[in-house]
Amino acid sequence: MNTRQPLPRVLAHRGASETAPEHTIAAYRAALDGGADGLECDVRLTRDGVPVCIHDRRVNRTSNGKGVVSTLQLADLAELDFSVRTARRRIAPRPVPPTVDVDCDGAGVLTLERLLGVVLEHGSDVELAIETKHPTRHGPSVERRVVDLLRRHGLHRAPAPGRPTVRLMSFSALALKRVQLLAPELPTVYLANRLTSQLAGGRLPAGADTVGPSIGALRHSPRYVQRVHRRGRQVYVWTVNTAEDVELCRRAGVDAIITDRPRAVRALLDQGGPMAAEG
Predict the structure, then answer these.
(1) Is the peptide bond before 135 cis (omega within 30 degrees of 0)?
(2) Are 174 and 203 in contact (CB under 8 A)?
(3) pTM of this structure
(4) What's the CATH architecture for 2-56+112-278?
(5) Active-site choice (23, 55, 138, 156)
(6) What pLDDT sits at residue 257?
(7) Which residues are 13's β-sheet partners?
(8) Which end of the chain is less packed: N or C, by CB atoms within 10 Å?
(9) Which of 13, 23, 138, 156 is flagged as catalytic?
(10) pLDDT tens, residue by residue, 98-122
């Protein structure tokens, strides 16, 4: 007997980062316009403790500046241009008046608060997956600052129809334990490059309710999704950018695909329609 299973949700990795520079408003708006179900971002703290959306420890690759994020003030990051595609494209920093929205479309770093505003303004059930980066000199302050910000916007609660869903993700099991203590209702995702013996059996670390394996791990063990589902958990796979990997995720029954190409992946999934799950 065959049963129908839903298509994976599509989350835009750092926005539509193949279309526009990663972690810019332009990238996130392109993702939503392209039919993404949700967005993914990386978060670090500035020296003055502001959550900002940057993947790397340094700003060198994604801006026209240099330096370690955790040693720079928000005001320093506001003067950089994050719309550059590569660190080789050096241009002089442009001064930003204090009244300007410094994190709009690459003019200055994108703050998490600004991204939350975009999600809330979208007016639909958008999902936002926030990865807190570790190790960092700020330690547990990262999760505390992020949860405090989510609480101010009423986004620290369990998913419910009619409002955005936020999930906190990390490669650090300790970070997810902190999240569970700070906001018990907030969904969490444990990210993994490979499947350890514990993960391979479908078990997750304490504090995690969803697992996020790499696409490489799924290629090696496509039946892993079934083992996780039998335990009542969801599977988010990253970073899925080819038609072959999209088909693998669909056949395996993953719950969400994290991709640099949300529009193309959405089109592939919609064209193929739901796959029949053997049972």
Answers:
(1) yes
(2) no
(3) 0.89
(4) Alpha-Beta Barrel (3.20)
(5) 55
(6) 98
(7) 40
(8) N
(9) 13
(10) 333 444 444 689 999 999 999 999 9
Neighbours of 239 (CB within 10 A): 17
Check: CB of residue 43 under 8 Å from CB of residue 52: yes
- Is 13 among the catalytic positions? yes
User: Is the pLDDT score of 200 beyond 80?
Assistant: yes
Is 193 in contact with 217 (CB distance < 8 Å)? Answer: yes
Q: What is the predicted pLDDT for the residue at 124? A: 80
| 129: three-class secondary structure by DSSP | strand
Token readout for 41 is: 């971002």
Residues 6+ apart with CB under 8 A from 98: none
Under the banding of pLDDT at 50, 70 and 90, the label for residue 162 is confident
| Whether the predicted pLDDT of 79 surpasses 60 | yes
CA distance 189 to 61: 27
CA–CA distance from 108 to each of 5, 23, 58, 75, 127 (Å)? 42, 11, 15, 9, 24
Residue 101 near residue 114, CB atoms below 8 Å? yes
Query: What are the extents of the domains in the chain?
Result: 2-56+112-278
Strands 9-13 and 234-237: unpaired
